[in-house]
What we know:
Largest sheet: none
Number of strands: 0
Amino acid sequence: MFEVIILAIALSMDAFAVSIGLGIKSNENLKVLALKAGLYFGFFQAFMPFIGYFGGVGLKDYIGGFDYWVAFILLFIIGGKMIYEAYEENTEDEIAKVSNKILLTLAIATSIDAMAAGFTLQLFDLNVYLSLLIIGVTTFIFSFIGVMIGSKGTSKYESKAEILGGIVLIIIGFKILLENL
């Protein structure tokens, strides 16, 4: 279960970073925006690993002997991508008004990586639904807090959150690999 909590925190870092940017740019009611961001990001960060998990169940018969290598490679790529994106221009910089359509787009975009990470949930001996709930609730909390931090004009945590999340995913990938070699 400890791995799931760490995974949930790492996966929520993209949403946290975007939420900080939303808080910086928004002139809306902050509590409403924080609640909406938390709900959108939390839902999609839980739903995408659900898709990845059940997609991986179908593949498990084909890759059963080296599934830990696939998990390692996926987590390494996702973590590396998060670290790389921390140094890129952020899409939320171009957003003036935060609509539901924009929140939906950002929630889907930040959770695509979580779909691939959902495959790795098969490697842990735990309840997948509880794991998805933990991922969703963790992301909700981080997104809510991110909007509030951003509203204070504190963008210095934005890229650091993505870097930390990327590093943690890479470490989890190495842990899975080393446990199965």
